[in-house]
Specification:
The complex is a heterodimer of chains A (219) and B (213).
Chain A (H helix, E strand, L loop, with lengths): L6 H35 L8 H13 L2 H14 L6 H26 L3 H9 L4 H31 L11 H12 L2 H30 L7
Chain B lengths: L1 H42 L4 H15 L2 H14 L5 H27 L3 H9 L4 H31 L11 H12 L2 H23 L8
Classes of the chains: A mainly alpha (219), B mainly alpha (213).
């Protein structure tokens, strides 16, 4: 474990860990913020952009994340658009992850009986109030487990950014391996850091489900 | 531009075959061992096999596949166990696959009423016949959706094997881009190949379901 006593290596890993945390946080928050309005929009059967959103969702879930990252990394410069590796990777990861969150929320909304909307309207609630007070909390309760495990998938997916020149945790581990040849120790250490982030997300899921008191899930 | 694409087509085609072959081997390993693990945990009297399986499963589900792959590829060499790029890919995705498939099969197994086990035992069925004739046929339809969802993710995630120079679709695509400077052409072909492979599975999984019972 001597490589770990070198301050330069610790600094490299700390910086890379923060980069992984930053990318993961932006991707998780961004993809959830984008998915909700899209899922609500798709609840209207006659929405004009419906086909486009469904086609996007299919494409983003059928194409590998790495291919999407490559399109931005190799493709954009050809169009004269020069993005730094980090924002380019974040855009690609958000593009890929939003589609999954959209599908989870969509099936969350579709699981709610129509009678609830009708009843709420009959009580004089506006459409905005119906969504805010009745539908959105139930859709989140139903799709919560899927959204949380997708958040872990996004943390894991951030490792793909290492293949498009982003110095995050996985990239730092390959740099250190090339210098020290201590692959097993370094990757165990880095793996534990990823496990730590996953554990925090699982903890948040536990808190969220406890705050629901489970009563929404037991329908 | 078309000529450039045609020149690379044979290589892209064999890359797609390699992706499919790797996926098939990985699905077989992770499906069989994930199922065996779920059955073992279920039939064990002591809680330790379950604790060990859950520990294994949570570790390999929270690690990025790329880290597991590097661990086998670089770490194997460090201890004198050279798996090679393809071997490391199969073992890495196999381990992650077992971790996921174990959860899929565990869930399906838990959905089977206890009475089915008791009834089969009361009829005097041996353990093998109990699983083969009674439990397995009821489990597989329940496990199918989760299993296919994970299979789709695996086929796409195999693209990271390009990082240890396995010549699957993304690796050949990267080479083609480097040689021709036509990123959009080759990335379109690559994504097209993935869509071709994945669409039947996605369509099968998302087909409208008849209401059960």
């Amino acid at each position: 474990m001597q490589w770990l006593y070198d301050p330069a290596n610790i600094a490299l890993l700390a910086k890379a860990f923060l980069m992984t945390l930053m990318i993961s946080t932006i991707v998780i928050v961004g993809s959830n913020l984008l998915a909700l309005p899209l899922a609500i929009y798709l609840q209207k059967p006659a929405a004009p952009l419906r086909r486009i959103i469904i086609a996007y969702s299919f494409f983003a879930r059928a194409a590998p994340v790495l291919a999407i990252l490559f399109v931005l990394y190799y493709g954009l410069p050809r169009l004269g658009i020069f993005l730094e590796p980090v924002p380019s990777a974040i855009i690609g990861l958000v593009f890929a992850s939003t589609a999954y969150n959209l599908e989870f929320l969509r099936s969350g909304f579709e699981g709610i009986p129509d009678g609830q909307t009708d009843g709420a309207h009959a009580l004089g609630l506006t459409s905005w109030q119906v969504y805010r007070k009745i539908l959105i909390p139930q859709a989140y309760a139903a799709s919560g487990p899927a959204l949380f495990s997708n958040a872990i998938q996004m943390v894991k997916g951030s490792s793909l950014a290492s293949l498009v020149a982003v110095n995050e945790l996985t990239a730092a581990s390959t740099t250190l391996i090339a210098e020290t040849y201590r692959a097993i120790e370094i990757l165990t250490f880095v793996g534990a850091l990823y496990g730590l982030i996953a554990a925090v997300i699982i903890g948040l899921q536990w808190l969220y489900e406890r705050s629901l008191g489970w009563q929404h899930l037991r329908r | 531009m078309l000529e450039i694409a045609f020149a690379w087509l044979p290589q892209l085609f064999s890359a797609a075959i390699l992706t499919l072959a790797l996926a098939a081997v990985i699905f077989a390993i992770s499906g069989a061992l994930g199922l065996a693990l779920a059955l073992l945990v279920r039939s064990a009297a002591s809680p330790w096999p379950r604790r060990a399986a859950e520990g294994f499963s949570s570790i390999f589900r929270s690690l990025p596949e790329l880290v597991v792959l590097f661990f086998l590829f670089f770490g194997g060499v460090q201890i004198g166990l050279d798996l090679g790029a393809v071997g490391s890919t199969i073992v890495a995705f196999g381990l992650v696959g077992i971790a996921f498939d174990y959860q899929v099969f565990k869930g399906a197994l838990s959905a089977i009423p206890e009475g089915q086990f008791d009834g089969a035992r009361a009829l005097g069925l041996s353990r093998w016949r109990l699983f083969g004739l009674v439990i397995l046929p009821q489990m597989l339809p329940l496990a199918r959706k989760g299993w296919i969802t994970y299979a789709i993710a695996t086929i796409k995630r195999l693209s990271i094997a390009s990082a240890v120079s396995v010549s699957e679709i993304m690796y050949v695509t990267k080479q083609a881009i480097a040689a021709t400077n036509e990123p959009f052409l080759f990335l379109s072909i690559a994504i097209g190949l993935y869509i071709l492979i994945v669409t039947p599975l996605l369509a099968f999984n998302e087909r409208p379901q008849k209401a059960r019972r």
